[in-house]
Design a protein that fits this description.
Strand order of the largest sheet: 4-10-9-8-7-5-6
Helix content: 40-55%
CATH topology of the largest domain: Aspartate Aminotransferase, domain 2
CATH architecture of the largest domain: 3-Layer(aba) Sandwich
Strand content: 5-15%
Largest sheet: 7 strands, mixed
Radius of gyration: 26 Å
Shape: globular
Bound molecules: pyridoxal-5'-phosphate
Oligomer: single chain
CATH class of the largest domain: Alpha Beta
Number of helices: 19
CATH superfamily of the largest domain: Type I PLP-dependent aspartate aminotransferase-like (Major domain)
Number of strands: 14
Distance between the termini: 58 Å
Number of domains: 2
Amino acid sequence: MTGPLHWAGLLLLAIALAVLARRAAARLLLSRAKHGSLAGHPRWARRLARWLPAYELEGDDYFGADGAPAEIQHRRRAAFGHLAGLFARRFAATRAATAELRGAIADLEFTSRYLVPFPFSRLVREQLAAGSLLRASAGRQLIDLDGNRCYDLTGSYGVNLFGYNFYKQCIARGSALVAELGPVLGALHPVVAYNLRRLREISGLDSVSFHMSGTEAVMQAVRLARYHTGRRRLVRFCGAYHGWWGDVQPGIGNPQTETDTLTLSEMKATSLRVLETRRDIACVLVNPIQALHPNANAPGDSALVGGPRNAGADDAAYRNWLARLREVCSRRGIVLIFDEVMMGFRCGTGGAQARYGVAADLVTYGKSLGGGLPVGVVCGRAELMRRYRDERPADICFARGTFNAHPYVMGAMHEFLRHLEKPEVQEQLAGADALWDRRAGELNAALAAESLPLRVASLGSVWTLCYPQPSRYHWMLQYYLRAQGLALSWVGTGRLIFSLDYTAEEYAEVQHAILEGARQMQRDGWWWSAPHQAGAQIRRRLLRETAQAWWRACSGSISSPLSR
Ligand SMILES: Cc1ncc(COP(=O)(O)O)c(C=O)c1O
């Protein structure tokens, strides 16, 4: 080879190696910024989910899945039978009416399957169903078709902040306000002007768009961020829920394999390094409820397969993390989106921005803001909310929806926002977190005093029941609580959401019911554990069961996901 060609070749090789090294370093950094759990690796989680074979535990295996001795199994079996009898009598009409609907309502079919870990699910569905229909709400209580009254700990997915009576009023008064116009869409009812003013004050941002759900608000916020930055990647943090749109829910539950989403560890310096160094990141999404369980999925009882469930908010650390995140995003031109759909007004009038002292570029709201009707809202800085470019008229960012700014929703929202203006309501909101954290502390003290293996972690009025020791049967607690007159949502003990209108007496009854449910669960042997039983033992049993099921599936004795 001649001299100059030789040098040119070497130069090209050096450039190629430098590019490769850069890419490898970026890849390595990204890997280090991922959380070690499966929730931090959505692709792997989805792959594993497709391989996991179905199996059911039966007979002795059902009641002795942790290796408990015969006497304990006997106690559990008797208790299960007792609860089954109680539920059959107490919820007869509600169950019958639900059974008629179940096969044809996909949502009911799905949720009833995922109340508990799948090996235990069939027997629970058959014998411990309480039904999914309700006749009325009255104060803090829900009334089913059999006339049973339960305290509501579902919070209607977080919508119910001020109590059902309040939302009934919002809907009635809001509807009256807009009745003359009725359901006319496209143009706006003048009540929107007030909503706009209040939302701008609350968010501290210039411009607002109205949507029909929290999911849609998040979709629009991300679309705007991409449009204005010209970048494609969105960063979400491990475990954080932002609705069911594909790009914010990579991994299990979403069949789409390719997204532009990076799932990073929350509260980890390496994640900030990724934001510092990459040039393709349009936005970062933050869901403030994650302060309660950073880097973990929303806790649900179907995930209680054996290990403990732990949670706990460190407010100071989270505040510090958000401040650092804000700083990096500002420096790198990344749009910081606070998704306040869930926590928005629950953590005070100013939402998470005020609570943590950090200003976001875009904020999404929803749930309670609709005054009991469906809604999603994006608030943002004027330049980020703009959907067109003066200089490029065809380059737009489209977002329209038939029902956006529906007059009846705007009416109910008006009532909700007016309520927020009242000094006594602001006082109530300002004191709510301290009140509910104190109640959680008192419950924990009572649980500890009786050596019950149950604790509560709280972020104000949102609670997670934690199980400090490993067991395969924690999920049974939801049925004990139901028997005590407490209504939980489909994620069970993972998320209890209180409305702020609980009186002290009512809360005392709820606390009593939780304690009594836990006592009975303990007495009935579900929390039995062998001396020195470690999580590792349970994990080994789980692995063995799974391997056996896998083997059976491969040899064709039961249908496996792979044989489909
Ligand atoms: C933080 C957050 N964002 C978005 C959503 C989606 O809202 P929606 O269910 O109204 O679509 C939720 C719902 O729970 C949420 O908690």
